[in-house]
Amino acid sequence: MAAKRKKKSAQRGASSAVQVRRAADRKSYEFLFPPSVRERAEDMEEVHAMLAAGETEIAVDELRWLLGGCHELLEAHQLLGKIAAEAGDRDLARAHFGYAFQLGADAVPKRGLDFPLPYANPANRAFHEAGAGLVQVLLELDESNKAKEVAIQLLALDPTDPLGVKKVLS
Fold this sequence. Notes:
This protein is mainly alpha-helical. It has helices spanning 2-15, 35-38, 41-52, 56-69, 74-86, 90-107, 125-140, 144-157, and strands at 19-22, 29-32. It has a single domain, classed as Serine Threonine Protein Phosphatase 5, Tetratricopeptide repeat. It is built from 8 helices and 2 strands, in the order αββααααααα.
């Protein structure tokens, strides 16, 4: 009986993590977010509306509240990183961009993927934007080697380089 319980709890743990799956086109991959993330989609739409209306402080409070109930909300970390970067708080931006990037990177198998994880897929955008933001912040913090490592990872997942991270490699 104990073995069955362990197996079930391991399965539950796996379903709460960000995962990668083959996209409908069968020629690329996309992130599959746990139910706790998908359940907050409407809240994230409200956050985007707040930001568009210039209500940044309220949006930040909402994002923090959302993360309190769901740490896997990659897009919330990406947005908080962007807000922090725009405010000049590089350390906070690095933390949020880094967390968002790591959530996605941890979902990618160590062996890599046989097809891209393209920015063009809406499910992948926050990850790529967080990675590009992390590259920029790392450069501003004079951590060019780490910025290059992140850029290499992003390019391996989407060689089309839609966000222009390849420039840090030259």
